[in-house]
Backbone:
């Protein structure tokens, strides 16, 4: 299948072209401002499907809206009419508004629909909400891109009305929906209705900014957003894509003494915390128990033993689990058992530890008791 993508170097175009490029049996013709009219004519004459993403959204002269959106769409469709092929148009929810940009997008929509009616070729007209995700140009026409870029660099941002709401869709969801139109059994083709991308998210501007600021604070708080929240998960991924390349890494606070070290790696409100513990040879750590808190230990380097004794039985025997980085095995730490971990090797023993809750010094649920 030969696929023509107009606006291939734009935000949506870059993401779409990379996804199409991974598909077996698909050849992608990438058309943008740097290409020639001859190339457009050649590709339009041989392609099997068109993703029409090209358009003008922030011209110096408002007259360019009509030329770059409605006008170029007409030119493209005229080339395709010689051999009708399916066309997907990326339009905007602003096509319903009475402004120069909206009018030009609505005119492009009508041209595509008329082309479908005239030729019988399938057409797919998407009215997209605000799209966010990696590679969107900051300080241009996306508030989310600008906020992620600026907050990551501790630059000022502007929020005119924090209570105002905006509807957004994520770039990967857009690409998935677009590519679905290539399926031979696709039934979404319609000339009288507009297609949309799901899921969509309606959020206040203040809510979005608050989330992005929390992502910026992660190196200090260690807090990772709830990955069950689809919007927070996608916004967090978007924010990370705007990090300055010299800020991918950040230091952790290591609690070091003569026994080794203990370092928290990340916190989650719904899944607890992950830490790494380093024990020197011959050192025993722990010697405590919990009422409700529970943990998982994974020794990834060195060798040792994890011991348990049940707290409600005065005659309880000590249970021992041998652990080693040579054989990765998770040891669960149930509530009600005092426990310790001892390094029995000749090198440092490194243990990854997970606890079901972030440590709260006001309610530690941790009680000293030797095994």
Residues:
């Amino acid at each position: 299948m030969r696929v023509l993508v107009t606006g291939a170097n734009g935000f949506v175009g870059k993401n779409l072209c990379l996804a199409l490029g991974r598909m077996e049996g698909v050849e992608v013709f990438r058309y943008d401002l740097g290409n020639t009219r001859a190339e457009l004519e050649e590709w339009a004459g041989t392609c099997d499907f068109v993703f029409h993403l090209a358009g003008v959204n922030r011209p110096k002269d408002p007259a360019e809206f009509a030329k770059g959106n409605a006008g170029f769409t007409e030119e493209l469709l005229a080339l395709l009419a010689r051999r009708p092929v399916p066309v997907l148009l990326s339009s905007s929810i602003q096509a319903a508004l009475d402004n120069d940009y909206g009018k030009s997008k609505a005119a492009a929509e009508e041209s595509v629909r008329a082309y479908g009616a005239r030729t019988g070729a399938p057409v797919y007209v998407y009215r997209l909400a605000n799209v966010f995700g990696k590679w969107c140009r900051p300080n241009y026409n996306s508030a989310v891109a600008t906020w992620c870029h600026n907050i990551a660099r501790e630059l000022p941002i502007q929020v005119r009305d924090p209570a105002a709401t905006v509807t957004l869709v994520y770039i990967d969801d857009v690409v998935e929906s677009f590519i679905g139109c290539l399926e031979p059994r696709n039934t979404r083709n319609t000339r009288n209705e507009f297609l949309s991308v799901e899921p969509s998210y309606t959020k206040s501007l203040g809510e979005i900014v608050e989330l992005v600021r929390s992502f910026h604070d992660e190196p200090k708080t260690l807090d990772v957003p709830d990955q069950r929240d689809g919007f927070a998960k996608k916004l967090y991924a978007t924010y990370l894509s705007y990090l300055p390349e010299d800020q991918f890494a950040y230091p952790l606070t290591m609690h070091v003494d003569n026994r080794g070290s203990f370092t928290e790696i990340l916190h989650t409100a719904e899944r607890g915390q992950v830490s790494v513990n380093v024990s020197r040879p011959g050192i025993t750590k722990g010697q405590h128990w919990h009422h409700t808190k529970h943990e998982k230990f994974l020794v990834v380097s060195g060798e040792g033993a994890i011991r348990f004794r049940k707290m409600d039985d005065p005659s309880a025997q000590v249970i021992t689990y041998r652990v080693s980085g040579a054989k990765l095995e998770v040891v669960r730490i149930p509530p009600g058992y005092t426990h310790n971990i001892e390094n029995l090797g000749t090198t440092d023993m490194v243990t990854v530890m997970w606890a079901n809750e972030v440590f709260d010094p006001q309610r530690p649920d941790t009680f000293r008791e030797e095994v």
